[in-house]
Amino acid sequence: MGGDSSIILYLQQSLGGRILDSHAFRGDETIVITREGLLEVFLFLKEDPKLDFNFLTDITAVDYLGKKEPRFEVVYHFYSFRAKHRLRVKVGVPEEDPIVDSLITLWKGANWLEREVWDMFGIRFLGHPDLRRILLYEEFKGHPLRKDYPVNLCQPLVPEREVKGTFVDQRSHNKLMQLKQQFSAKS
Amino acid sequence: MKADTKELPLETMDLQMGPAHPATHGTIKFNLKLVGEKVLDCDVEVGYLHRGFAKSCEQATWTQVIPYTDRLNYVSPLINNVGYAMTVEKLLGVETPPRCQCIRVIVSEISRITDHLTCCGMAASELGAITVGFYMIEAREFLMRIVETLTGARLTTTYTRIGGVKHDLPEDFTEQVTQAFQKVRRILADCDRLLSRNRIFIDRMSGVGLISQETAIAYGLTGPILRSTGVNYDVRKAEPYLVYDQLEFEVPLGTKGDNYDRFVCRIQEIEQSMRIVEQALREIPLGPISLEDPRVVIPEKEKVYNSIEGMMHHFMIIMEGIQVPPGEVYFAVEGANGELGFYIVSDGGGKPYRLRVRPPSFIAMSACHEMIKGYMVADIVPTFGMINMIAGECDR
Fold it and tell me: Which B residues in the span 20-49 are in contact with A, Cβ-Cβ below 8 Å?
């Protein structure tokens, strides 16, 4: 474990006040950093020869509704091919202003991972070129992995999206319209 | 192009390939922008098989999550089972007995072979080599039968338990595996003769879907796609879990990072996996297959029916779930398509507070446009085949 905690010690020396908290529960080195100056910290992690975290393993988020303040935490996992160590970096994100900087300039793989976090948690990424929903559809209401999203919530039916230049079979179109009318008459 | 030939008008065409397309096994949609037959731009749409895996897991006890993990990568469900169980064990801070670890290695490697056989067979049959497709599916069938005798199911295996596995290996397991491997080796030799020097196959695969080492690392690719570019990263070697550090095996690497390299990597990995299984079967120790910790593993039925403690432990684990200490861990195993990681947050209750899977297929699909751009529409088929996207894992 001596070698493990040396990463955290080194980070505390070089980043100082940026690190709010750190732990190594079950050997997983973790640091919590401030939301301000996020990109500089990640650039340091990537470029520093001693750390050399060149591989972004994963980006995800956790919703600590009513357990912690700030409510959300965006969690980044890194790995270094050369030094063979891992690091977890967490950033607190408050509910009223859910925005963090996008890592897309540093790692291209952040693109889809950040889109998924936006989709599931409603956290926006500043500087992301294409922040659309990824697993769900654009008309989906709410963000399902938030703790205040009920498990058995039904989503409203959405009208068929018109895609420009697509051939539309009128028969299926008419049938869909009929179904829609039936549905609206019932409710 | 000769100077005097007339150029075709460079008008772009939008083509939507999918969601139900015969060459894309699994529902996925490519929104392509084409010039003639060349792909200019590509936007991949995933999510057709999204079923709220993470949200479902938050409602289930730690043990009830195991069946959900079967449905992640449904071509090699046992690796998911092992990965999940080991993550929870890391959170609990316990280690399983050596026999259990050996069994887990064996089942993981058999699953890896079935996954690679499916991937290579399907990719070959999509290019017209349907004989190879059928041969490889036949080979997979021999291994599926072993999985079936062991777990009672082909897909919904649910074989691991937190702190152990469901049952011990059957008595004639070694014999069955030896026989099956003999047949698999013979079939692989046949496929090699049919395919590896086949002009059509090489023309379609070689130099197609190229990805450089830097791009692969920037996208976070793992598994055969990363190794085909020459990066030696395999979780089994980099951070050995179970008994992988005591077993001898090699990590096949490619040089160019094209589809043919990926294919060769996978075929060679099959041989290495068989080597691992044979070694593990030779050196498997006797002993218990589960922990004997009543807080983690349900006691034997005899104790449950005949003693009050046994009854209570059984009741608590079934009704309340295993009590896992609060904390967070990340643990990765080498899945058939790359690093399969689990990030679990526990709040100290009987259910996971947050369960995140790092899906190798999802991350591979995020780099898919890089491998498709600039090639023909027909080249999408082998490239997509060698990525081996498993919708259950990609969309969760």
Answer: 46-47
Compute the radius of gyration of chain B from its Cα atoms.
Answer: 23
Chain A hits for B50, CB-CB cut-off 8 Å, are 135-136
Q: Which is nearest to B382 in space by CA: B271, B262, B295?
A: B262
A62, A135, A163: residue with CB nearest B345 = A62
Any idea what DSSP says for residue B389?
A: -
**Mutate which of A4, A42, A57 to disrupt the B interface (most B C-beta within 10 Å)?**
A57
CATH class of A2-159: alpha beta
Length of chain B, please? 396
CA-CA distance, A32 to A24, in Å (whole number)? 12
CB contact under 8 A, B50 and A166: no
- Determine, for residues A135 and B16 on separate chains, whether the beta-carbon distance falls below 8 Å: no
What one-character DSSP code corresponds to residue B41? E
Q: H or E segment at B329? A: strand B327-334
pLDDT-derived band of residue A3, with 50, 70 and 90 as boundaries? very low
- What pLDDT score does B31 carry? 86
The CATH code of the domain that includes B191 is 1.10.645.10
CA-closest candidate to residue B276, choices B251, B253, B238, B244: B244
Asked if residue B47 belongs to a domain, the reply is no
B298 domain-assigned: no
CB-closest option in B47, B339, B367 to A134: B47
Contact B367 A165 (CB under 8 A): no
Facing residue for A57 by CB, picked from B91, B215, B341: B341
Ramachandran angles phi, psi of A45, nearest 5°:
-60, -35
Confidence of residue A1 (pLDDT cuts 50, 70, 90): very low
Give the residue from chain A lying closest to B93, CA to CA: A26
Q: Is residue B5 part of a domain?
A: no
Structure tokens at A55: 């591989």
Cβ–Cβ of B343/A60 closer than 8 Å?
yes
Establish if B64 belongs to a structural domain: yes
The position carrying tokens 């005097």 is B4
Phi then psi dihedrals of residue B344, to 5 deg:
-120, 135
Query: Do A25 and B329 count as a contact with CB atoms less than 8 A apart?
Result: yes
Helix B173-195 and helix B130-151: axis angle, to 10°?
Answer: 170
* Residue from the list B219, B354, B396 with its beta carbon closest to the beta carbon of A109: B219
pLDDT at residue A141, rounded to an integer: 87
> What residues in B contact A55, CB-CB < 8 Å?
217, 220
What is the ipTM score, two decimals? 0.84
CA separation, residue B389 to residues B115, B121, B237 (Å)? 11, 14, 24
Range of the domain at B100: 53-293+324-395
> Based on the structure, what is the number of domains in chain B?
1
Q: Give pLDDT, residue A113.
A: 92
What ranges do the domains of chain A cover? 2-159
Smallest Cα distance from A56 to chain B, Å: 6
Return mean pLDDT, chain A: 84
- Enumerate residue ranges in chain B where pLDDT < 50: 1
